[in-house]
Amino acid sequence: MSANIWGYQETSGRLAGNDLTGYKVEATDGSIGKVDKHSDEVGSAYIVVDTGVWIFGKEVLLPAGTVRHIDPAEEKIYVDRTKEQIKNAPEFHRDKHLGDAGYNEELGTYYGTGAPFGGRPA
């Protein structure tokens, strides 16, 4: 797991300033959707993925630390989580993310530890 879940891994190949909107996102076990929004803000970088039909159009926020590799030639982002882990993640709420530090902390805990949302054991 990344020490800083809100920063891109050095090995991701992330080039600051590139627009990732529309890039396909691949979990460790298959495609999960496309990037709808992203941020490169230091200390709170993330991608928002529109998961489409596989979990009924849910949007999820993935902290940048979950990004394993970015392939600009194929416009794909590879993350180090399974589809199940992403499916069980809390739904992205634009208003909560932008104004609620507690929401970000819970997301960081979920993705940082791999534990189910709320920190309850599986």
Output the keywords.
alpha+beta; six-stranded mixed beta sheet; disordered C terminus; 122 residues; SH3 type barrels
Question: What does this molecule look like?
Answer:
With 122 residues, this protein is α+β, with helices and mostly antiparallel strands. The chain has a single domain, classed as SH3 type barrels, CATH 2.30.30.240. 20% of the residues lie in helices and 27% in strands. It contains three helices and six strands. It has helices spanning 83-87, 94-99, 101-113; strands at residues 24-27, 30-39, 46-50, 59-63, 67-71, 76-79. A six-stranded mixed sheet has the order 4-3-2-1-6-5. Strand 1 and strand 2 form a beta hairpin. The longest helix is centred in the C-terminal third of the chain and has 13 residues, at 101-113. It is globular. Residues 114-122 have low confidence and may be disordered.
Helix and strand layout, with pairings?
Blueprint: E1 24-27, E2 30-39, E3 46-50, E4 59-63, E5 67-71, E6 76-79, H1 83-87, H2 94-99, H3 101-113
Parallel strand pairs: 1-6
Antiparallel strand pairs: 1-2, 2-3, 3-4, 5-6
In short:
The chain has helices at 83-87, 94-99, 101-113, and strands at residues 24-27, 30-39, 46-50, 59-63, 67-71, 76-79. It is of the alpha+beta class and 122 residues long.
